[in-house]
Amino acid sequence: xxxxxxxxxxxxxxxxxxxxxxxxxxxxxxxxxxxxxxxxxxxxxxxxxxxxxxxxxxxxxxxxxxxxxxxxxxxxxxxxxxxxxxxxxxxxxxxxxxxxxxxxxxxxxxxxxxxxxxxxxxxxxxxxxxxxxxxxxxxxxxxxxxxxxxxxxxxxxxxxxxxxxxxxxxxxxxxxxxxxxxxxxxxxxxxxxxxxxxxxxxxxxxxxxxxxxxxxxxxxxxxxxxxxxxxxxxxxxxxxxxxxxxxxxxxxxxxxxxxxxxxxxxxxxxxxxxxxxxxxxxxxx
Length: 285
Prior knowledge:
The protein is mostly beta strands. It has helices at 37-47, 189-197, 268-272, and strands spanning 4-9, 15-17, 55-59, 63-67, 71-77, 82-84, 87-89, 95-97, 103-105, 113-118, 149-151, 174-180, 200-202, 210-214, 229-230, 235-237, 245-247, 254-255, 259-263, 279-284.
């Protein structure tokens, strides 16, 4: 009998995520996948799962689940209180949850996204080689709702990490290394200086598609229309209001606003955990 999890409380936004769908951008399908990929991989390693086994990505308010078999879970990423039937259990370390008990991952105390991994992984049906929920295209499982039932895979036989591991803290300040181009020539020299010297802040309108910023607008040197062109993960697009948007994992594959630069993918895990109001600075490099 396939073990299952029942969703008792789905939270603000909880989705199934793995390492995403690579190689389909030419079909208009973004990568998707866990926005904080290192947190997903560490949670899986603590259980002996494959690094890209599907997990649950929660947003701000966590979620609650009830297994029909005894399972081992790890809640990592953004720190939050974790309980089993109301009893506090460790965050960031493996926890056994008996059949019928309720595991509750509470609201984050810092950061944005927590990751709930289960031994054996979430066995949702793959679409184009991935179990990830893509909010933009609608591919993959729908965001979780109360009462949903999730099948689980068989626990792996790989060696798990020791029961405790260091977890990066969510950023107090988000530093985003940037390579200019391909459309930096659409902006004034003053705008380029502003981009790399001003302090922006994370906007409450940020989501898995993009991290939106609040701060000084960037003035264009060219006011013409740009034909839609390909977009990549980490692209910094500047819409008409002049405030930079950093594209994250559910970003569109094409767009008609100029891209002033591209943030290194290695910095995007920190962007995933930058709470509203976090200072943001772009640096050349």
